[in-house]
Structures are given as structure tokens and as C-alpha cells.
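Hi Prof. W.,

I finally got the L,D-TPase catalytic domain-containing protein prediction working! I wasn't sure whether to trim anything, so I left the full sequence exactly as given:
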Amino acid sequence: MKKATLWWRALWLCAFPMLLVGCTTQAPAPQVHSVAWYAAHIPPPVIPTVSAPTQSVQPAPAPQELHIVVDTSDRQLRVYKGDALLETFPVAIGFNGAAPRRTRGDDITPVGKYRIGYVRFGTRYGPFMLLTYPNRDDARWGLREGIITQRQYDAIISALDRGEAPPQNTPLGGYIGIHGMGPQFADDPDSKVFPGRWTAGCVALSNWDARQLATLVRVGTPVDIVGEVPGYRRGTPAQRRPAGLQSVADNPEGHLDHLLAALQHGSTSAPQPAYP
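And this is what came out:
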């Protein structure tokens, strides 16, 4: 009996390790991988399909530029935005009419394509909107005719190339602009510019209209002056004006004296013979 017990204990001790090995082979340990391996095996996300829009988006139209046309024939200044007419203002022009070419002291409103060079408020005539006269055509003509020198021509072209107002002190004249009539005249919506030809070459509006225009324009606004109006016979300044009427082309604030003298002598309604 004692021998049998010892035999079973010996058999159990031999079989127990084998049972442990059998259990481990039936449940192997899980395989461990690197982080990169797990990242590479992440399934891609599901992206829902988005249908294309049925209507294309059109680009916004470019803003239409404001521009001014001064018709010296009917004495009207028209403000356009693109093809749309915004405003119309009656104007007065130069004492000697309007023509494509002018020189200092001839009292002619220049005909051509210009831009607003600057806007100054608080002048003797309210807002003063300088035009970029002389332009390239004016300068070429002046150089060809020997009115200005090569140096003066180069200065005009250089200023225009920089987008600046050209020199105003050459023999071609300067300080041609758009302005009102001054504090001596009415300043309300019903006021009108004194009609006719009485400026030293500028384009004059009523005080009210000049202020309205000054709120619309900016530096660079295009201004086209069109039409050709005959003036008094050419000659010396004294010969082509009524007695007592003096030139003010060299004084950008001299239009008022010019107008008052013209009113005194009745020259604003005088006959308008053609240029010789």
C-alpha cells in the first residue's frame, strides 16, 4: 500500500510539467508591433460625396469709372458713371471761347483730355478742381511751335508720367480748373452760374453746383473738354478785350475781377466773331 502511494506521487510529478506545456501551446501570447505598423493599418476615413453646384459663380463686374464731359458748345458739364448720366451742370467758359491750343494769357478754355490734378477747398471760388493742363498733346504742340523749351517739355512729360499735375508756369499757361463763382454770388440749390464767356480759361459753375461736383470727383477723374467755340479776334490782350478788361491768366484767383469788368462793359453778351 505504501509502495502504491509513492508510485502515484512519482507519476503525478512527471505528468504535471507536461500539462503546463500543453496549456501554453493552446493560448499563445499576442504578437506586439511598432507604432508605425499600427498607424499604417488605420483604415482611411469615409468621405461623403458632394454634388457639384448647378450654377456657376460669376466674377463681380469691375467698378465703372466716373468721368466728366464739358461741352463748350452748349455750356454744359455732364457727369457720367460708365454710360449712365448722373448730373448735368450749366457752365461758363473762357472769355475767348474754347480751342485745342492755348497759351498763357489768351483766355481760351483748352479742348482735350485731362484729369483732376487736385481738389482744393476754401479758395476764393469755393472748391477748385485743377485740370492736368497742359497734357502730352499740348506739350508736343508747344515744343514743335517753339513756345516751350525742351526742358519745359521734359518737365511736363515727367510729371504726367508720375501721375502728377504738370508745371503750371510755362508759356502754355496753367491753373485751368473747374470752380464756383465765389462768395459774392448766391449759394443755394436754385442759384445758376452767370452764363457766357468770362473766365480766363477755366470752367465755372454756380457755387452750389461746384460743391456738389467736388463731392463726386477725386484725383485722377477723367475730364474731356469738347467742342470748339470762337472767341474775340486774336491779338494783344488789350486788343481783344473791351477797354478796362485786364488779363488774369497769370492769377488763378483773378476770375472775379474779370467777371465784374465784363459785367460793367457788357462783354458777356458781346458778338462772337470767329478766329481769323
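The CA atoms of residues 94 and 199 lie 4 Å apart. Does that look reasonable to you?

Thanks,
D.
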